[in-house]
Hints:
The protein is of the alpha/beta class. It has helices at residues 11-22, 39-49, 65-75, 91-94, 96-116, 151-170, 192-201, 221-233, 269-280, 304-310, 318-333, and strands at 2-6, 26-31, 55-59, 79-82, 121-127, 174-179, 182-183, 206-208, 215-216, 219-220, 256-261, 267-268, 286-288. The chain has one domain: 3-Layer(aba) Sandwich (Rossmann fold). The mean pLDDT is 95. It is globular. Strands 3-2-1-4-5-6-11 form a seven-stranded parallel beta sheet, with helices on both faces. Strands 7-10 form a two-stranded parallel ribbon. The protein contains eleven helices and 13 strands. It comes from Parazoarcus communis. This is Protein CapI.
Amino acid sequence: MKILVTGAAGFIGMHTSERLLARGDEVVGLDNLNDYYDPSLKESRLARLTPHPAFRFVKMDVADRAGMERLFAEEKFDRVIHLAAQAGVRYSLENPHAYIDSNIVGFMNILEGCRYSKVKHLVYASSSSVYGGNTRMPFSEHDSVDHPVSMYAATKKANELMAHTYSHLYGLPTTGLRFFTVYGPWGRPDMALFLFTKAILEGRPIDVFNHGKMKRDFTFVDDIVEGVLRTLDHVAEPDAGFNADQPDPSRSNAPFRVFNIGNNNPVELMAFVEAIEKALGRKAEKNFMPLQDGDVPATYADTSELNAWTGFVPATSVSDGVGRFIEWYRGYYGV
């Protein structure tokens, strides 16, 4: 198939593109290579993809309406994996407009492109952050997600609503994947694993929020990519049993689905830190700090729906995944 991967120079985008190419798909990778974090890391990821004869890179912002219209009209993609977004909960407190431009305007351009070029399936990145103030664990797609606690979360919930509209009006099959704390080699520098590793190796203390009383459903990137590809190959369909009197937020009488994709095994933050310390052979000096605005104390994915739909089962332990990240980090940065 000919597949558009947006955010192809990003963490998940690079790994996803590699897997698509390995199985024989043609990939057009789109990215704006912005400076939210070190662009040289994005360029290094891209350098892993560009030698492949079935990969082509397009430098463009998804918020570029005219450019996106041309791209879809010229390329005639079979399917789209939309991973480009302004990421980060904390940054959304400082620069909320960036999230509207990329995550709302950009997603609108993706939907319009898919609609007019008759794309057969749009798979897009949502986020565990949509669960916001929910406290019932594990988080289930059948629960309401109407109480976001950050602008980032609000834009991801908006994406799900926008996708449903296009599934309903135009029959566009859409599937949203709510990612839960993805980590692994080539990961983002603003994520905890990267920040902690860098600080420990440099002999600096690490900031541990909510006084260490955090739980995250840390999910290794290879498991995430396996779930993304399985989802791409299982095109969303209308749910014949959908009950409009008691509507389920995760499905519809339109070709629309939303799934959690996580490790289904929340880990205490302090246990995660211990795994890093063990892999590095060093102890961390810790600054214990309060919970930050927009953050939540715990995430935990119920992945039974995705398992039933695609057979997805996460396979990587935190100790193994952290070890593989540390190995990459030491090699990439020569430390």
